[in-house]
Amino acid sequence: FGLWSLVFFLVLLSCSSFLFLSSSIIFIMGLCSECKTVARNETKTIRPVVFAERKCACSLSNDMAIPASFSVLGDNMYNFPDELVSEDDRMAAYENEDSFTARLLKFIIEEKPLDSLTWKVGGDGKALLPQIAAAILVDREKREANGLQRNKHDTFDSVIRTYKSPWGRMGSSHPLHTNGDYDFTTIFLSYISHRFLCVSPSVKRHIMRALLPKAKETPVVTVPNVYFSIVETENHLFMINGTFYNIIKEHQKISPRNSDDLSAFLKSLCDEVIDSGVWEYNSRPYLYYAMQALLILFDTTDTDTELKLAITKVLDYICFTFALGSINFKSGGPFRRRKSYYNVTHLQINPLGVMMMVWSERFKLNTVTVAIENIENPRKAAIAIASTYTPKRTVIECSNKKSGEYFARIGHGKDSSPELITASKRWMLTAGGVPCPSSDVLAHETLLIFDGDDRQIRREDVFSITDSKGLSNTGVAFNVAICTNAVVNVPAFMDELKLPSSFKQWTGYHVNGCVVVIFQGIYLSVLAIFDDGYDECIRMRQLNTEKNNRAFKESMNDEEDEEEEEEE
After folding, report:
1. Is 104 exposed, middle or buried (0-12, 13-18, 19+ CB in 10 A)?
2. Given phi > 0 = left and psi -120 to 50 = alpha, else beta, which region is 147?
3. CA gap 531, 516 in Å, rounded
């Protein structure tokens, strides 16, 4: 009996060890995939050095009406003429039923009913509730102001009352925290009391008492439920601490609570973004979640002057760098996180594109020509409609039309990829970047996007050039893109030009009053665009040929003279 007991004990111990080892390996693998971040230093102070040893830089050579102060990041970066949008202008943008903003609200509300959302692990509710609810409440606000009945799809009050407790937990999801990401929702729920007078006090009390977490007065910096310290990702840092900040500010109306530490932390985080750039730049989908938190905090920090200024600077910086790399609100370029979004080729996948469309109507620019159905995930504009933040008019115009030529270089520090963008009035050439797998940076093709061509919806609809080995797509300077081991894409609807026989290995295309020429060699390929059209392209070729011939004749004459001198 003792022997069998010993055998049973050893077998049980072996199985337990195997299970523990297996679960540890699965946990570490899952944690690495879900919470993978660049190594970050921590200090004993309230401020984590989230972007340690990483400085960003932005330089701009331009003929546009953009201040030279944008050449270097700093306090003078935001010196655009200050043209403010009034509350009447903001409301007027969706008062007109035919406006893009009004049609967008209708589309968001009717596309997916609020009571159809799911909250199980992997469900869509945590991300979609803020987007759909924001559209419903803005629409309710408009209808009440005009004395109209509520929309038949307005089920916000009834849906919210069905939830008796939080349906998730704050912080990043990972194998030991599968019901995380609740802060995707709570940042918006904490905004309702401040922003929407059209929500009844009883619904607001239900949200505060039943659905929002207990607020902490000290900042949350690390990922929950892990055995070692990992600093939270950028979007979660803004959403979690922004939620707690909003809750405490609301509770201060009832009982005194201190939000100074949270305010100092959020300001410090904003300062680091300005100093080091956005960590999750162009991120799919995480840039949106950071923007959601920042747009909400812009509205809830009216009495916190320093924090509001810091948030405004971050929003201005994000919007301006997007505008540099956007034309007709379409963009391309390298991005950090996530690999699963790499094959999404839509040119308006960046949520700032549809947000800019909304903001443009506040200035009555009437620049939106794309159909809502052709926009990738238009719901993400709902929070921009609700928020009172609006970028400067010059920035919005730059994201749609180019008033002149420029060459912009936006650095993102060590272990990352720069953004290289060159543009003229009729086109934009944006580098695909260089991949950095160790820091979750992904790159894709260098893209040539033309102004005013609504056929260009996805990356396959534009001229592109890419390194087939995935090494680097950073060879962009003004009107030329160069790439080794290149694969060149020409849209199927482009008509080829007949070039002179002297253009060996070149193909040409006439687009939007410009000429695109492509050279495809064995080791090197070139994509170039000429603003002055076909005749200018031919003239430059002839001039270069004549110049080369003269240089060749001169070199031959020099050689003959040298031979004569040697003979003498």
Report:
1. buried
2. left
3. 9
